[in-house]
Records
---
Amino acid sequence: MSTKEKKQKTRHFQFPDTYIILIGLCVIAILMTNFLPAGEYDREERNGRTVVVAGTFHEVEGDYGISLINLPVKIHAGFQSGSDIIGFMLIMGGAMGIITKAGAINFFLQNVLTRKVRGREKIMIPVLMAVMAVGGFTFGMTVEGVAFVPAVVTLCVALGFDPLVGMAIVFIGGNAGYTAGIFNPFNVGVAQSIAELEPFSGSWLRWILLVLLLAVSSVMIVKYAYNVKADPTKSVVYGMGITESWKTELDLTAKASKKEYLGLAAFAIGFAFLIWGASSQGWWFGEFSAVFFWIAVVTGIIYHYSLNEWADYFVLGMKDMVGGAVAVGFAKAISVILEDGVIIDTVVYYLAKPLEYLPGVITAAGMLVVQTILNLGVPSGSAQAAVSMPIVVPLSDLLGISRQTAVLAFQCGDGINNCLIPTYTSMITYLAATRIQYKHWLKFAWKIVLAEWLVGLALTIFATVIGY
């Protein structure tokens, strides 16, 4: 056997890069436009939203199939479609570059908070996850939470964990709150409005869902964190330099200077302003970008950076986010392809059709499965509700399943797998902010997401049995 043949035999499978996965999904979407019939539902205005009209699906005349040759064109259109979040990611990255260089946040986390939580890490992880969940179930915090990532990741690394633990605390914790959606206007609020239910009614079961999601995920994250603390080689990212990149010098005797206090105040006030705007003023990526930009400006003034120094640190911070920003463009291309091929409604129609022939308890579980699959192509909670709920609601009435249960199935299917699907742009933003590759996050998170999904499935079946 030749040396070349031996090398080929010993070559291991390499998990595809994030971009390869997203391009592959784009190709699948293009093939779907050529094999599935173009179709759509009629739409109407309801409670200020454009929603589909159940029972009106019809095929559309014309050739909407997309050629593979036009794949780059659709990817370019994806960048245009995702320009708001791409711009936000780059500006936020630049701001975080300046904030990180200044070091005020890291100082207080490592030199103050680390002292207080050392030895109590098992409590710290679920407590911080619960704090993140509050943002999720109140004003629907998703990508906004990325502002906490540098601080929490730095804290976790200082305590002997790895960056995956820090990202999980913020992202999985916040997503648990978003999924439970107790007062979340973007998933439960929209879905209940379409289902003609009282706003945020039936919250008692959603509180239970929140507790179960946090309990399951925090136990699994704590177990992983302590395995890494005891043996760093157990880290999914061991030996890749990611954990080391988050380490800074730790001096527990150091005292904060006036600059540190002012730097912390600038960040805290800015983020409080962001939460206020997101929760009550309808702010979105443009306003979020403005907040981070001005935090960066004020921080630069506090630390007496020259204009050129400020620009250098801002550009360095942006560089950390470029990979994630590019991935957002590819992810958005998938939605563009499905829309241009006029097959989103077709997919919804054929996914929902089998539910008509399932018995009650199984139907509710089937609704969750359908929403989970649909979430891959339509990861926006509000958009998914507008497309699917007008179809699912009359179907649930016909089969004797309560509308509250239909909403519960929607929110679990829409929310839980957000922590795993590569088309979810908020996850891509978190990965960019933590410098973690998707394949490493997938290896770490899939068991947690599966456990959460099974909790959602069990609770949906329970809701059907009790007539929720």
---
Amino acid sequence: MFEKQWLLNFTQCYSNGRIAYHALSNILQVTAGEHAEQIGFGYRDMAKAGQSWVLSRMVIETERLPRHTETITVRTWIQYFTGSRTLRNFEILLNNKVIVRASSVWVVFNLLTRRADLLALNTDHMVYFPERSATRNEPKKIERNLPFASLEDYQIRLSDLDIAHHANNVKYMEWCFNAMPAEEVLQTRAKRIEMNFLRELHLGDQVKIGLHQDRQSEQTYCVQKQEQVHYLMQIDWAE
């Protein structure tokens, strides 16, 4: 179990003062990275073995969104590990009350083959919490064979890249929210966000942001390159 406090600054928030959804995802992942470093499975240890962690799926459930200048506590723990993938959970607390819950699936990635791999590091000291879930369900596979209406085109830029030389997964989420009507994002709350990260994107890649409206309160967004889906995000908005 690992905890980290965050004081939210204005760069992490929308104009209404609430944390931006991509910033929320980033805070969760940075906290996970610090925990992984602490227990010997961080970026540097993994890189020595020619491996890294990649985020495969994530689900975020919100009861309230943190706001500018609030100090939140992010709690994270590993529920299980199977040799090549792990389920990591999160809670965000404000004044000792849980306001956000999240669950994520991470896969061991071979930096040479660019494929999933068995973890090369020893896991005997790893502590699991197999009975402690965070969300109602584990992150699921999102249906990709849907009719998507094109919202906008986008070209991957330098600012989208991270140290793995590909577009950072937080950016996929940001692109999709940027393609939405601003009033929808600012005046309502996404009570559940489910994401599937399927393929890498690189500098200069041309992509399309698409939308499938499942019902009034549920939407599925995609990022496509040459008709191939690289990212899916399903949102259930609060009524």
---
Amino acid sequence: MRKINLFAIASASLMLLACTDYEGQITDVYKEDVEPGLDQWEQESNDYIASLQGGVNSLPSGGNSGSHDASGCGDLWCGATDTEGRIDASMLPFMEETGGYWYDYNDKLEGGDSKFVWPSDVKEDEYGNFFGPMAEVYGGIKGTASVVTGTSVDFPYVGIGFDLVNSKQDPADITDWNGICLQYSSTTSFVVELGLQDEMFVEYNDYKVNVAKATSKSVAELPWAKFKQDTGWGNKVALSDVLSQVANIRLKFQTPGDFHIYSIGRYGTCK
């Protein structure tokens, strides 16, 4: 499991339980370089990654520590200035010490083979923090989503996210954000989901919005009115009842592709 940072080490088991509550698990992080002695699953999965056009290099690399463009960043997180892999605590007064750290998750616990492949030149720091060093090198979160079909998982996925309050996923009211904005590039579409502490409230049918693929750096403005539940399953609830108790924000990939997340903010703050 990828540790988040020094403060989160003591609550690692709580974080794992919290993340598996909704649908996945915090992943072990795989790198581009492959070491000898891979088992069959790892080798097959890496072969799959190699078949993706361009792999993690098909988007502009941006891999140059200290020279990133922070213009137009949203007010919650700016990869160009981040060194902790964490949402700006000054913007979220309700956030506690274990809140706000980026993590990743996948479909492994459900029998899937999906995973992320991260750039091989990014390493954990001495505190076990991975996404902070990545932001320093790439000005954001950059990788390849290897979403593998043909397993026991009907709808395979990988995702990244952050908890708003703490690793126990206590809820927060984000109604007054009016929505979310992103600075990003991606060779595949993905969704932004509003995760809850009690997923049975919606029976795992979370409010979400689709983000279109964009092969150059782009801005997505996502007002709450665009967030919808899927039809035909789950428990239908009012959006207002969800916005008053959001535990985490998740970016979920359900098709393979390369991506780079530069910034995230409240609606209207990305330029």
---
Amino acid sequence: MKTLFETKRLKIRDWQKGDAADLFELSNTDIYEFIEAYGWKPIKTKKDAEAIIEAWTKGEKHPLCPSQKLQYAIALKTGKVIGTLGLSERESDAIQVGFIFNSNSKGKGYATEMLIGLIAHNDARGIKTVAYTSEGNHAAARVMEKSGMKYQCEDRLPDMPFVRFVVYSV
């Protein structure tokens, strides 16, 4: 299992087969209304969650979660997975970030902590961090701002022209 980076309370690492129950729980969170814009569909069974994790560990997309290939588990240091981090290359020197946390993790600063850690990780490698969020997802926009990112523009992605996004970067 590869760890991408760690923060004080979190470990950002590869997904493992044993994480299926946590992914299933995550997929049934109230934030799901926003990630449907990215083409994600509800995960209805733990078997579906296992199949998604298997695809992600092979670097493949899965039909229920088609938007990003590189997915990492956001886990507490105890091992409990509380979110997922998706990374996509958008430009030669930039990585686009997407993240989801389960409902029980809201208001605890985990998203801000993770994003600050990712920005530092990318900065050390000379990589720019860019984040898109669905217009109306004010909580995600606030996390980006608290993490030091600045509003850049509104945009539509070629693969999702029906959704208006708000773009932030460092």
